[in-house]
Design goal:
Blueprint (H helix, E strand, L loop, with lengths): L3 H23 L6 H30 L4 H33 L2 H34 L23 H13 L1
Helix pairs in contact: 1-2, 1-4, 2-3, 2-4, 3-4
Length: about 170
């Protein structure tokens, strides 16, 4: 669905993972299961930030903007949603660190580190990579997720068929 932005997100997420491992090693963090869960949750938030950005870019292209303008506007419009979600999660991590015990503090630390890194990679690194790829000549709208015409499926009109299939599966 997203050719150039998908490549940019993949590269940014690899840099995210490398930076996260360096930070954990540099801060001498002992990983426990809750700490690993914090890392996994922050990776999910990093992926989500990229999806929000690329959906905004695709919406701008569908609205008739050229690719350069769609990239600029897409990142600007996505910034508030990304910051809102990540700052809320950082507040939750701070509360968990203040009120939590040992393993909960480990979860809070890895979550907070991951969230800060995900904001940096999504808002700065991914933007840089997308702009760089645009500058290298990937300027066609099809590379940025131009929306395709869809023919909707009328599920409601076929409700009896789906009820029968569901009943057969349940009985089996």
């Amino acid at each position: 669905m997203y050719a150039v932005p998908g490549v940019a997100a993949g590269l940014a997420l690899m840099l995210y993972a490398a930076a996260m491992l360096c930070l954990l090693n540099g801060l001498d963090v002992t990983l426990t299961l809750p700490g690993i869960a914090g890392i996994i949750l922050s990776i999910g938030m990093a992926v989500d930030a990229n999806v929000i950005i690329f959906t905004r870019i695709r919406e701008e292209i569908a609205a008739g903007r050229n690719v350069r303008e769609a990239i600029r506007t897409g990142f600007n419009k996505a910034r508030t949603a990304i910051l809102d979600g990540n700052i809320t999660t950082l507040i939750a991590a701070a509360v968990l660190y203040i009120k939590g015990s040992g393993t909960i503090k480990g979860f809070a630390i890895t979550l907070a580190l991951g969230i800060v890194l995900s904001m940096i990679t999504a808002l700065l690194i991914t933007r840089f990579i997308v702009s760089m790829l645009y500058g290298l000549g990937f300027r066609d709208q099809k590379y940025y997720g131009k929306q395709k015409d869809r023919s909707p499926i009328s599920f409601v009109s076929k409700a009896k068929i789906f009820y029968i299939i569901s009943a057969v599966v349940i009985i089996a």
